Amino acid sequence: MVEIYNFVVGPLAWVGWGIFVVGIIYKLIYMYSLARAKDYSSLDYMSLPFSLRSIFVWSIPFYATNWKRNPAMTVATFLFHICLIAVPVFLLAHVVLWQKFFGITWATLPDQAADYMTLAVIAACVFFGVRRATDLRARYVTSYKDWLILILVASPFVTGFLAYHQIFNYKFMIILHIVSGLAWLALIPFTRLSHMFLGLFTRAYAGSEFGKVRHVKDW
Amino acid sequence: MGAVEYGIQNRKVDDIGLIQGAARLTPERIQKTIQKVLAGETGAKLKAYSEICVRCGLCAEACHFYMSHDGDPSYSPVGKVKQTMWVMLDKKGKVSPEFIYQAAQVAYTECNLCKRCVQYCPFGIDTAYIMLVVRRICHLLGVIPQYIQDTAHSHASTMNQMWVKDDEWIDALQWQEDEARDEIPNLRIPLEKEGAEIMYSVIGPEPKFRTQLIMQAAVLMNEAGMDWTMPATTGWDNSDMAMYTGDNEIMARLKRDHFECAQRLKVKRIVMGECGHAFRSIYDMGNRALAWRMHPVPVVHALEFYWELLRDGKLKVAKPFEKTVTLHDPCNVIRGRGLHEKAREVVRAFCPNFIEMIPNREHNYCCSAGGGVINCGPPFKNVRVQGNRVKAEQLKATGAEVCISPCHNCHGGLEDIIHGYKLGMELKFLIDIIYECMEKPNAAE
Ligand code: SF4
Ligand code: SF4
Fold it and tell me: Rounded distance, CA B66 to CA B72, Å?
């Protein structure tokens, strides 16, 4: 167990993080050169202020028309994404690792808060799952990939929660937690999860077209 | 998927263009064409849209087709992409002629390219763009509803949409000049006046069956004291159905001809009539096809032109239009250009009893005629009328006697909706009201 643990927090972590970082850089360069080659008539209208305006506006819960129309989805979406990022970044147990390996450190969340936030992520995943299965708008366009992604995203949180509360075998859970977390990172650049960074650009483009050319709001 | 399999397969419409086009296809040709378009004409935009769409279905309620079909998800924007582009991408173009038939029906007749869904998707995914790529593929495969293909043929051979011959065009203008002179004896429709300030351009259907609009515009120009002209050559037609069939080459030729016509006449700007899609062609798609960031000659849409004339005191209200009116915001000039407040200022100046429909401005629902759907002709009339029940409800809720629709396509679409749902509303262009209620200093007593 100890060797496996050392392996996953050592070499495997490097691989997971490596694919995540290099993958995103590669993807951004690839998409940008493709856009320059093939989508110049769109790229040419990009505008920084309108891009930022659009990203900003859509980041406010219940501001855009469609956020208002779908309150449950809005709450779930915002809660999910905020906790999804905040928990792994500010969890004491994670920051300790950064300190141990790289000697850097930053603010942390109280464990109790992180625990609730983890539950919030899991609850949101359940909500998304139920919605996917029952809301025709989503169900009609759902494929097995969407289920896999949902499971992939939920698993580090479920395993982390179980490990923290020492439910089942702690050592086994923690390894599962790290492996699923790394798999999640590594897959971000190559799956629908790439909306994490590509979504900013499609939003920016919509904002630019609507703001600069069409002179209307895109929300 | 439960008991009901939603989708286009349940609602296929017989159309000779689609039937014969699909009959000519082979799987090899389909695959080659799809791959050619995907590799040659699309890039990061389509890739990003397809990859990051999280299949949440939040765009559904943006679309009047979805809103009018009791929650049938195959009418939602993402539902349409699922039935067309995703399959083409997944199968790398290995799809059947039957699939192309259905994809063509979705892309040409169940999406108005109104871009309302862009405003509803958290990532701003542009389903209209994706539908245009599908149309482009169908165009190259020759699977296009017959009526709209006929207009594209007309564009290609006559440079106008309605097979109007050169002399018929000039005849129509002289006829309308004559009509106008009953009321305004000094009125001329100046043809080919080099160096005029304004070239007035219209769409092909105006000389064909909405000729009174030319007369009314001439009266407005005359009474406002404009230095204007109309061309006697091709280039007079600003419309563009090729843009909607996916014939990008003809689209570019048409726009070049239009702008070169204005440049030949050395006018300072083009003023165009109350048309939405022609504006899109000039401002959004045709110019880009020609690699122009913006139109090379300034272009002013009628709505903005009326507003300018009012502001400058050249257009004055003689009497108010008393009936209760509502205003339909045409997608291509409102969501496409933000002319909603100017349109309202003009409407309010003439119509004291103005009622907003809800939603309005850039959130207005499309008329369901746009994007070339009405041009797909009678076989698809029910598709767009039934596909826009929500518009009928929206109109009805205003309780207005008159609906102003400052766009040709919208006009056609709303007419069918008003009749189809027995709303008993009058439908008008804005120029109809302006013409009726403006001061006409040169009018004969
Ligand atoms: S009709 Fe309009 S809202 Fe519906 S899919 Fe097409 S562009 Fe989107
Ligand atoms: S709202 Fe956007 S992300 Fe969601 S299904 Fe529609 S297109 Fe995809």
Answer: 6
Task: Report whether pLDDT(B60) > 70.
Answer: yes
Which CATH fold would you assign to the domain B4-144?
Answer: Fumarate Reductase Iron-sulfur Protein; Chain B, domain 2 (1.10.1060)
Whole-number Å distance between alpha carbons of A166 and A158 = 12
With b for 16 or more beta-carbon neighbours within 10 A and e for fewer, the B371-389 pattern comes to bbbbbbbebbbebbbbbbb
Residue B333, C-beta contacts closer than 8 angstroms, at least 6 positions apart: B276, B279, B301, B303, B339, B343, B406, B407
Instruction: Assign A43 to helix, strand or coil.
Output: helix
Q: Does B111 contact ligand 1 (Cβ within 6 A)?
A: yes
Distance CA(B49)–CA(B63), nearest Å, equals 18
Say whether the ipTM exceeds 0.90.
yes
Residue B78 Cβ contacting ligand 2 at under 6 Å: yes
Instruction: Name the nearest CA neighbour of B413 among B378, B365, B369.
Output: B369
Q: What angle do CA A68, A209, B267 make, to 5 degrees?
A: 135
Q: In angstroms, what is the span from residue B53 Cα to ligand 2's centroid? A: 5
Does B334 contact A216 at a Cβ distance shorter than 8 Å?
yes
Task: Report the DSSP pairing between strands B299-301 and B228-229.
Answer: unpaired
Q: Rounded to an integer, what distance in angstroms lies between the CA atom of residue B62 and that of residue B364?
A: 10
Side chain identity, residue B34: I
* One-letter-per-residue 3-state SS of B165-223: CHHHHHHHHHHHHHHHHCCCCCCCCCECCCCCCEEEEECCHHHHHCCHHHHHHHHHHHH
Pairwise CB contact (< 8 Å): A137 & B76: yes
Q: Which of the residues in chain A have pLDDT under 70?
A: none
Residues of A within 8 A of B340 (CB-CB) are 216
Taken in order B359, B363, B364, B369, the sign of the CA dihedral is negative
Residue spans per domain, chain B: 4-144, 159-311, 325-437
Ligand nearest to the CA of A77: 2
CB pairs under 8 A between A and B: 139
Residue B247 alpha carbon to ligand 2 centre in Å: 28
Q: What are the tens digits of pLDDT across the range A144-172?
A: 999 999 999 999 999 999 999 999 899 99
pTM (predicted TM-score): 0.96
Facing residues of B191 across strands?
Answer: B230
Q: Provide the H-helix boundaries in chain A.
A: 2-9, 11-38, 40-43, 48-58, 65-69, 71-90, 92-102, 111-134, 136-139, 144-164, 170-187, 195-208
Residues A175, A177, A178, A180, CA torsion sign = positive
Q: Which of B85, B131, B133, B280 to mutate to test the pocket of ligand 1 (most atoms within 8 A of CB)?
A: B131
B175 vs B81, B171, B213, CA distance in Å?
A: 47, 6, 12
Q: Which residue of A has its CA nearest to B126?
A: A206
Instruction: Give pLDDT tens digits for B249-289.
Output: 999 999 999 999 999 999 999 999 999 999 999 999 999 99
Q: Which residue reads 């983890």 in tokens? A: A118
| CA B434 remoteness from chain centre | 22
Query: Can you tell me the distance from the alpha carbon of B403 to that of A45, in angstroms, rounded to the nearest whole number?
Result: 35
Q: What percent of chain B has pLDDT over 90?
A: 98
pLDDT in tens, B175-229: 999 999 999 999 999 999 999 999 999 999 999 989 999 999 999 999 999 999 9
